[in-house]
Amino acid sequence: MIAYRRRHDNLVRMRTEETITSEFGGEWRLRIYADETQGAEHIVLVKGDISGDDPVLVRMHALDPMLDIVGAGGPGRRNEFGDAMEAIAAEGRGVLVLLRDLHMTLHPEGGASPQTLRQYGLGAQILSSLGLHDIVLLTNSPRPKVVGLEAYGLSIVGTRPIGGGR
């Protein structure tokens, strides 16, 4: 069913693209993708040439202001986004996807909600639209078991930890 929906139901559309310069790795292509069903805009940062058959370094990051900005919930998360950008810049190529959830609460119940699983699908559509196939995930979590990626033409071929250099 996912393969059918991949071919026929595209839930995200790229709205804009521009070049930006960041303190985390210099020049990036910034793309804004809109979720056609809920209206959320997701930010995609692309570094270098991501075409070709070699695996691409990817960070999928679900925005959580309490963890990412305030630093609540334990050490390490507050700097992950910038650290991931620097790791991709050091590699010379890669993609960072910042998924935004319009329905997020400040006190989540925990666990993988249907909304979290839906975001994985949106992220997979975004990566597929970029022409990616084999990816190496930047993550400090154990190797993820994300089902259905094959239907989007994606395969996780490895993981790499995000440095904690700050």
Automatic annotation (TrEMBL):
One of its GO terms (molecular function) is hydrolase activity. It comes from the Bacteria. InterPro entries: GTP_cyclohydro_II (IPR032677), RibA-like_sf (IPR036144). Keywords: Hydrolase, Riboflavin biosynthesis. Pfam families: GTP_cyclohydro2. Pathway: Cofactor biosynthesis; riboflavin biosynthesis. One of its GO terms (cellular component) is cytosol. GO terms for biological process: riboflavin biosynthetic process. This is GTP cyclohydrolase II.
